[in-house]
Write a structure and sequence with these properties.
The protein starts with 6 loop residues before the first strand and ends with a helix. With 384 residues, the protein is an alpha/beta fold. 37% of the residues lie in helices and 18% in strands. A seven-stranded parallel β-sheet has the order 3-2-1-4-5-6-7, with helices on both faces. A six-stranded parallel β-sheet has the order 10-9-8-11-12-13, with helices on both faces.
Length: 384
Amino acid sequence: MDGKVQKIVILGTAYPYRGGLAAYNERLAREFAARGADVSILTFTVQYPSWLFPGKTQYSTGQPPEDLRIERCVNSVNPFNWLKVARRIRRMAPDMVIVKYWLPYMAPCLGTIARACRRRGSSTRVISVLDNMIPHEHRPGDKLLSRYFCGSVDGLVAMSRSVLEDVDIFDTHKPRLLCPHPIYDNFGSPVSREEACRHLGLDTGSRYLLFFGLIREYKGLDWLLEALGDKTLAGRDDFRLIVAGEFYGDPRRYYELGKPLGDRVIWRTGFVPDGEVRYYFCAADLIVQPYKTATQSGVTQIAYHFEKPMLVTDTGGLAEIVPDGRAGYVVAPRAGEIAGAISRFLDSGQDFAEGISQIKKQYSWAAMCDTLETIYTQCYDNKK
């Protein structure tokens, strides 16, 4: 087996759904297609029931990607559908099925399809790319569901060491490899800081911190707002914080924390469309990720694409991806430490451009495809 995979099915989120999961699967499909593989994406007709979805909408307002073959056929809550989708995959006879796993809620659906599409004697191998094995926001039954999913696949690719270690909780025998989250390079080319500020209606004379993405408890926006009120930053009027993203939960606590900060916080709440992402990153001087728990982050990989320094907390896999002093700052997960790093950045004028430019080279989509093909080969050889 030479490791080159000719026919691939990606099972998971894609257009018309929005967000990082869709962007990841679509970008991965393009990379494999560029290698000459025949790639199809099977996505959801129902991803989450509306009453379970915490945001305003699950759907993209953009145009469908014309260069991808996407079929909506998966219903996450209908077991009869899962068996139907598995039969569909068996008829397609792919070499590899790639399943991104991010939430135990999806384990029954994705795990059942994965089991049912692997027939004895078939060369199809199911490989999972793992965002998390244990979710940031814990619920009863999480470990049981993740164990079920883990048992359904042939091999696993973790995007951080912490997730790779979590695999051992559920399985110690399946082939697994580590490959960091590739760079999100699908949000367009950089624009000048001046153009970005004009587009967003921002004063070009101020410096900007950016908190970007879905606003959830584990992402630590409350710590960041507390940091801005810390004595270390008291009285400073030479920077602003932009909060750009959609609340997944009650926003009132965050607004209360932001009140004493006045116009030092610029609220741009709501989902940021793909076409607007580059303006926020190109306007920003520092990307801040004050996460309370983490594995890896797509926000980090957007920042690398636009070559922006980052401030991250030393939790999960973030410190692996953002080397302290080379791509930004890694600090203890406390408001005072976050405030201190912001102050150092504002005062030092340190330029991280060279380090970021070098580090980003290792986070390629080619490396992810190579890793998936290596795992496929290992799984194929194991079952011959």
